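FYI - complex with iron/sulfur cluster, inputs then prediction.
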Amino acid sequence: MPDRFQKTRRIVQYTFAALNLWIAGQFLLWVLAFERGVEPTVSRPAGVDGWLPIAGLMNTKYFFSTGQIPAIHPAAMVLFLAFCAISLVAKKAFCSWLCPIGTLSEHLALLGRKLFGKNLRLPRALDVTLRGLKYLLLGFFVIFIVGMSAEVLTDFLSTPYGILADVKMLGFFRHLGPVALLVLTVLAALSLVVEQFWCRYLCPYGALMGLLSLASPLKIRRRVALCTGCGHCARACPAALAVDKLVQVRSAECTACMHCVASCPTEGALQFSLPIVETSAPLPRYRRALTPTAFAILIAALFCGFVLAARATDHWQTHIPDAVYRQLIPNAGQLAHPGLR
Ligand code: SF4
Ligand code: SF4
């Protein structure tokens, strides 16, 4: 089924990107209404909290410290936990199937290949060193946030700055300063040349998803008896993994993008599955290679399961009265980071 995996992945990627665009549009309309002092015609889309990974980490720490689901930006925690669960079950599929930055990054690399004929692969020593950067950034955030008490977290997220973290984030993109614009341009240019530059070297969120994905029972697995050693899979892997030499791909860099599976010319030699059991008896369905549709359904079920559970238990939306937003949003630009005790 070589191409079906990539087609299915594209459908999932574009659907999730469209969902994010719709959320961004609705959130912009909601913020503009408060800025103009008129009644909003749309409600705040809680899914915007998915763009607040630090709030997600803070709220998760709060939840595990107190056993209580935080009242402000609860969806940040729900989405963070949903993406962690996807990584624990289905490798780092969040990066290559859901994340809009990953989708954009992948398309920049495709454009780069059209413009320059190929993407640049950095020398291995430099590649490994640079890959360490995202783990350093992750370590910084984790140490910082895990060290905060539940009281400090509540204090911070209850400040006007914490309440408007989503509005401030939108403001960052609406009013890009010269430095931010330069940084984004450089990152986009590097992503044209080096495939997945941001994701591969700098994204701490992806680093965390990769570490969790090590526990995933589903992995890319090679049937040595069927493999011809042609090496197509290794050449196709954007993470430059030696798929043709491994029996199973355990790496934290594997995003379950399925490029390797799609490139394999030998039926059944490479598959995404639970551990392979060699037997002459028919295998139960769950033991066979996962089909693209089954994988997409698995990811969608985990994502929707968390979101629907949060909505059903009223732990999805931040319940702040409109009067508070009416007072705070017009002055959001002046709000400075309150600092942390
Ligand atoms: S091993 Fe296969 S699925 Fe994993 S990143 Fe490489 S190409 Fe993608
Ligand atoms: S592409 Fe398939 S047959 Fe070729 S080396 Fe990889 S697993 Fe083996």
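Residues 220, 236-237, 239, 241, 243, 249, 254-260 surround iron/sulfur cluster (ligand 1) (CB under 6 Å). The chain has a mean pLDDT of 93.
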